[in-house]
Write a structure and sequence with these properties.
Elements: H1 3-20, H2 27-32, H3 38-66, H4 68-89, E1 93-94, E2 97-98, H5 99-111, H6 114-128, H7 134-159, H8 167-182, H9 211-223, H10 225-242, H11 248-263, H12 266-272, H13 275-294, H14 299-327, H15 333-362, H16 364-395
Antiparallel strand pairs: 1-2
């Protein structure tokens, strides 16, 4: 197939995929509808984060064994099947445990690796097609998410929060069809396709020999806390300001809309600014955003910060994915990208627990102050590791 035609299919698939992912903004909301209090919701979200931490590397290793496209389709199908039953489970309990929690945990086993697998697939296409750029396609994901997030607020108001969870199963068949048409990426330009003998080991120990990867992952756990904490806290902050959480979906749409336009600029900026510098700037912004949200008493301030947050996210996701993909050992690129997804899960666990406890004890705004402080300190540590890395390479 001519690559221009294939590119159209890739862009449409990206749009549909992220449109179906809008339910992620409503996980805490639907947990609240089961009657759980703030601490219980935080604990459930932490459990979801634990699953999100553990499962992506497993799917990443599977992708490096059998192919990233096939693994993505398996994961998406599994999550869509479970997600279909989530709206039907509200109000049903297994003893004292809401069935919704069980289903969300089960679905997350498959769902947690979706974005990482998609990113890995796109990066492999970028390696094999010089005319393809990750950011230029990723913006269609933001467009799909923005459009569906804007529609999700009236949809949830009309049919209930649970209806949003049917979007992923709804888009499953079209996405699987497009995936079959797009096919597997070819070998990277200038390289032959790696040949793996049956049963050949991936040699995961090679990951630990990469100074850049290990130092980034160690710092990212804490640099991501303001990003994770802001997402967790948003519904409570909106409720505190307006007395109603229904705007959460609309705010997610505003943020994703800003991402779409910013993705157009990302490739140009990345050509002029080093990835390590962009990483520091982006995570530094999220720490500052947390401080500003802690003082927000107007929904217009929150809207303005969601716009700037969308800009930062476009740079964060594109820069981080390109950075870790470029540092990945041969044959382990999918594993590395999904490990990054696991790192986000670790950050989510810590942020969920910290913000949940502080929210019940001292109010929603205290959590923002704490995760912001942790984030800015972690950025400083990452800068220190970068300086040490340069010195080590000079003396080597």
């Amino acid at each position: 197939m001519e690559f221009k035609k294939k590119l159209l299919l890739i862009n449409v698939q990206e749009l549909l995929f992220y449109a179906g992912m809008v339910s992620l903004s409503f996980i805490a909301v639907i947990l609240g509808e089961t009657g759980m209090d703030g601490t219980a919701v935080g604990a459930a979200m932490s459990g979801i984060s634990v699953v999100s931490m553990l499962t992506p590397p497993l799917f990443g290793m599977l992708a490096d064994k059998i192919g990233v496209r096939k693994t993505f389709c398996i994961a998406l199908t599994g999550a869509s099947i479970v997600w279909f039953f989530v709206p039907l489970s509200v109000g049903v309990k297994l003893g004292t445990l809401p069935l919704t929690v069980v289903l969300l945990l089960s679905g997350t086993f498959f769902r947690a690796s979706h974005e990482s697998l998609m990113d890995s697939w796109l990066m492999k296409i970028q390696d094999s097609e010089p005319s393809f750029n990750y950011s230029n396609t990723r913006k269609y994901g933001s467009l799909g998410y923005a459009a569906m997030a804007a529609l999700s607020t009236p949809l949830a108001a009309l049919l209930g929060t649970g209806a949003v969870f049917w979007l992923m199963p709804l888009f499953l068949i079209p996405i699987l069809f497009l995936a079959s048409r797009i096919g597997d990426p070819g070998p990277a330009v200038g390289k032959t396709a790696p040949s793996k003998a049956k049963g050949e080991k991936l040699q995961l120990g090679r990951l630990f020999h990469s100074y850049d990867l290990m130092t980034y992952f160690a710092c990212a756990i804490f640099m991501l806390m303001p990003f994770s904490g802001s997402g967790i806290q948003l519904q409570y902050l909106v409720g505190d300001i307006m007395g109603d959480k229904s705007m959460v979906g609309l705010l997610a749409g505003i943020k994703a809309g800003a991402e779409f336009f910013c993705f157009l600029l990302v490739p140009k900026v990345q050509k002029r600014v080093k990835p390590s510098v962009l990483i520091c700037l982006v995570f530094g912004y999220y720490a500052c955003e947390a401080f500003l949200l802690s003082t927000a008493h107007s929904i217009w301030v929150v809207i303005a910060l969601m716009l700037s947050s969308g800009v930062a996210f476009a740079f964060m996701i594109s820069t981080v994915i390109n950075y870790i993909h470029s540092k990945a050992p041969e044959g382990l690129s999918s594993t590395v990208v999904t490990v990054n997804g696991a790192i986000m899960g670790v950050a989510g666990i810590i942020a969920n627990n910290v913000c949940g406890i502080l929210r019940d004890a001292a109010g929603v705004r205290t959590g923002y102050l704490v995760v912001g402080t942790v984030g800015i300190c972690a950025v400083g540590l990452f800068i220190l590791f970068q300086v040490l890395g340069k010195r080590l390479r000079k003396t080597a």
